Fold:
Amino acid sequence: MSTESSQWGRVDPDGTVYVKTSEGERSVGQWPEGDPTEALAFYTRRFDGLALEVELLEKRIGAGTLAPDEADQAVETVRSSVAEAQAVGDLDGLLRRLDALAPRISAQREKRKEAKAARLAEARQAKESIAAEAEAISVGNDWRKGADILRELLERWKALPRLDRTTDDELWHRFSSARTAYTRRRKAHFAELHERRQQAQVVKERLCAEAEALRESTDWGPTSGRYRDLMQQWKAAGPAPRGVEDKLWKRFRAAQDVFFGARDAANREQDAEFEANAKIKEQILVEAEALLPVSDVDAARTAWRDIAERWDAAGKVPRSQMRTLEGRIRKVEDAIRDAGEAQWNRSNPEVRARASDTVAQLERSIADMQADLEKAKEAGKDKRVRDLEESIAARRTWLEQAQKALSDLS
Structure:
């Protein structure tokens, strides 16, 4: 058998197959019979398989699909396969390609380390934020939303990576303590609320009983006032437990409805009667207002006495008309009274005497000031002249008013 060789290996005449490496030749197998060319081809195909394995490993590491530790392990596994390979080919080249992967793996390890550090920094910031938000909630009184928010914060915490043990434990202690403090305060609040609702239930049951006892009353005014008092007490009592509150309110409202329904029916009946009274008073007002303006006080007084008696006898009118009707009749009454007082003042000697004295005093005062004015003019005292002229003008106005009042009394 002849020797068959290639760049990377050869086959001895005895069928031994060798591979050439930087360290020399080494036997990779036996091919005792057959064509040496086929032997080389067979062992070369084995090399091709290793080369493909190295290529795939390069691509996976280049794509970053392997963690650095996994990549190191994979490289060592393939390296061992190459170093001990029963194959013919550039095994040294494959080993160099595997060696070239080390810096790439190291760079990826550093990059992952930096990314991990960044994630941990973000996680720390997020956990500090969660702890701070939980602490803010723990001192607040938002009993409805607070618990929901704390549950959301817990889920966010769980989704974050762990930090170093000391930092993670410290932040967890803050977060957990805040949740515990809030939960205790919340439970205390609802326990107190439950107690108040129980007390409110007792109060409202008593109010329902009293409201039901009053519902048949026909003492409309006082009973209406008492129902207003009961309503104020109802509001002041606060809410009873859920479910109970609605039932108690229906009882209380039903009792009110019975009373106020009966009162409204009575008021409607009464209003019908009052409407008739209002029509009578409208007719009386026509007579009363015909007395104005008062020219004969005695005749007006006589007519007024009859009108007033019939007015009172006519009875009550609807509340909506009461102010208007009463205002009109009071206007007539006031006019007759004022006319009587004016007549008395005109016939009162004391009043006439006082008015006459006022006129005389003003006349004397004006005469005295007129004399002083002439002297001031002769003396050339301009300021004194102006002052006296203004005083005289004012007193003449008063005199005209006093003379008119005296004339009215004549």
Q: What stands out?
A: Residues 200-269 form one domain. The mean pLDDT is 88. The first strand starts at residue 4 and ends at 5. DSSP finds eleven helices and four strands in the chain.
